[in-house]
Amino acid sequence: MASQKARKKKRIAKHIVRAQDRKRQEEHAKNGTTEPTAGTATTTTAPPKKKKKKSQHVKDPKEAQSYLSLWKYRELAPGTWKFNTNTQSWLFRHMYDSDAVPKASFAILMDYLQGLKGRSRDWANEDAVRRVLRYKEWEKKGTDSNADADVVEGEGEGSKKEEKEDDDDDDDDNNEDDNKDDDDTKDESK
Fold it and tell me: Global pTM?
């Protein structure tokens, strides 16, 4: 018997125990009983732990401005500027925010972006294109809503309906012409 390994008690995960408790409580609520049924063990579960949020470092815009100015004058004073991934990422995220990156720093930032290589250059380009497209869509929605407002007010309402009817008539004429052409080709093939 000494050679046999002692069996360990099988542990049940907490989320499974909680689910089982909830199920029992629902059954008791349906049955109208307040006591658990025979053969079931009651376990108390602790409330789920809340995850603590990491305190995020808020970068001072002056720190980013200093980074850019050191980058600009790095050739005049070698060894003063050092690449910082976090600062570069912050600049990318906030480059369109005029409060975070003022005009003077933005001009230096444009020079900085010219020298980018690799994935960061691609990302900056994709972000700029995305923002331009989003702005164009927003601008388009703004002009569409102005056109809709004219129709609601009643200005030009009749002329727009007439234009639509005229367009529909043109389409019907084109379809008839197409059908005639099809008939002509059938006659030629016979």
Answer: 0.47
Give me 59's structure tokens.
Answer: 């970068």
Q: Torsion angle, CA of 95/100/101/103, rounded to 10 degrees?
A: 120
* Interval 33-60 mean pLDDT: 62
Strands (E), 53-107: none
110: nearest Cα among 148, 72, 159? 72
DSSP 140-165: HHHHHHHHHHHHHHTTTHHHHHHHHH
* Higher-pLDDT residue of 39, 115: 115
3-state secondary structure (DSSP) of residue 95: coil
